[in-house]
Amino acid sequence: MMSAMVKLNHHYQKLQPNYLFTEVEKKTETLLSREPGAKLLHLGVGDISMPLPPAVVEELVQASLEMGDPKKFRGYGPSQGYLFLREKVAKHDYENLSVSPDEIFISDGANTDLANLQEIFAPDVRVALPDPAYPVYLDTTIMAGRTRLPLKTGGYGGVVYLPCLEENGFQPLPPPTHADLIYLCSPHNPTGVAMTRPLLEQWVDYAKRHRSILILDAAYEAYINDPEIPHSIYEIEGAKEVAIEVKSFSKNAGFTGLRCSYTVIPHQLRVADTGSIFSLNTLWKRRQDAKTNGVSYPVQRAAAAVYTEAGQAQVKGLVTGYLERAKVLGDGLRALRFAVFGGVNAPYLWMGVPERFNSWSFFDYLLEKAHLVTLPGSGFGKTGEGYMRLTSFGTKEAIAQALERLKAL
Ligand code: PLP
User: Fold this and answer.
1) CA of 49 to the centre of ligand 1 (A)
2) What are the helix (H) ranges across 18-101?
């Protein structure tokens, strides 16, 4: 067979195979082929399990009907997103923080922007990211050629890892070294721990001293319960000069299958380079104008419905439901003497594995002995070894049954 001869982006060769989910699937299928009657319970899934709230569905239907009406249909929308949605985000999510609609960019998902934001920076900027972390930060850093090869000790050369350990309360601390672009995630996937106000202050201070940029992934912001935890990095003085914030409708309003999110790039966020000063907001707007025609009109109308009175009540109901399950799961596991973290300001729980196991051997044990499908923490980075990520996205019944099975082990 003929092969094309076009030089590839060789940085893709440095990527590790998407081992975590394929391995979980493979092991689960093997068990089912051995024990076809096994009733598996899934405790590790990161996708929501409740449908879209009725207020969202209603608006989605109405807006879709408009698209078939010769008088009302819409063609291309603004690449930055419709003003009706950006105004709602600014007014509701940034009340008292003076974020204006033109600092908000609507997107088809947090993932998209977390990955693409890197492209407005030079190839040799140094990236820092939490360990363990949601994989998109590292994968896209590798794809962009901002790492060296994988190290024998785990991790990639050229990346600044921010270890989230029990000793530091799973809080990613500013490192003693320099980093240009820093990914932070609060509440954090996979540990389920949210960053405290003093820590966010330390990060803003670090970014100012190092003249770096923070990218805060706040996809789980709606789950913050603790009144001491900031809901936005812009609650920290000076953060608008150093931070981009990314939020999503996926995990609060169930948009994982519908796709809508937003990114805030304040006008104060300016970068000095080659003797000139650049506005990141202007650069990103230019990039969006060139590369996207935005998110569909019905989806943006559906997202705007999240901010109606009914939408707010329904979203609160969804989030409260997931948090209640997280509490049941956390309390149940603690009663069984497992070390469990997170689950208070996030739908994720970070469970320590008993001493005689590592993440994968404990995964195997739980799968074989209790038919529980979990997620090994080591799949999120080398510091995740020794932990499992559990989620409260499963049903109440599944959580109760899972606890019963664990008790019986
Ligand atoms: N950020 C984190 C930390 C996540 O866990 C996820 C999805 O699981 C995302 C971003 C992706 O969000 P979206 O569905 O908006 O792309």
Assistant:
1) 15
2) 19-34, 54-66, 83-93
Q: What pLDDT does 46 receive?
A: 87
Q: For residue 287, how far is the Cα from the chain centroid? A: 22
Residue 52 pLDDT exceeds 90 = yes
High-pLDDT (> 90) share of the chain, %: 94
Q: What is the pLDDT of residues 108-143, one digit of tens each?
A: 999 999 999 999 999 999 999 999 999 999 999 999
Atom of ligand 1 nearest to the CA of 111: 16
Distance 116 CA to ligand 1 centre (A): 14
| Architecture (CATH level 2) of domain 56-308 | 3-Layer(aba) Sandwich (3.40)
Which ligand 1 atom is nearest residue 261's CA?
15
What's the whole-number mean pLDDT along residues 27-31? 96
Is the predicted pLDDT of residue 80 greater than 90, yes or no? yes
Beta-carbon contacts of residue 11 (< 8 Å; ≥ 6 apart) = 142, 143, 144, 145, 147
| 189, 247, 391: residue to mutate for ligand 1 pocket, most atoms within 8 A of CB | 189
pLDDT in the model for residue 17: 82
Substitution candidate for ligand 1 out of 108, 183, 216, 251 with most atoms within 8 A of CB: 251
Q: Where in the chain is the domain with CATH 3.90.1150.10?
A: 16-51+310-408
Residue from 111, 129, 136 whose mutation best tests the ligand 1 pocket (most atoms within 8 A of CB): 111
- pLDDT category of residue 153 using cuts at 50, 70 and 90: confident
Helix, strand, coil fractions of the chain, as percent rounded to 5: 45, 15, 40
16-51+310-408 to CATH, choices 2.60.40.1120, 3.40.640.10, 3.30.70.20, 3.90.1150.10:
3.90.1150.10
Six-digit token string for 53:
């709230």
Inter-residue contact 105 to 263 (CB < 8 Å): yes
| Minimum-distance ligand 1 atom for the alpha carbon of 249 | 15
Q: How far is the CA of 110 from the centre of ligand 1 (A)?
A: 6
Please, where are the H alpha helices in 110-196? 110-116, 136-143
| Centroid of ligand 1 to alpha carbon of 162 (angstroms) | 19
At 193-228, the pLDDT tens digits run 999 999 999 999 999 999 999 999 999 999 999 999
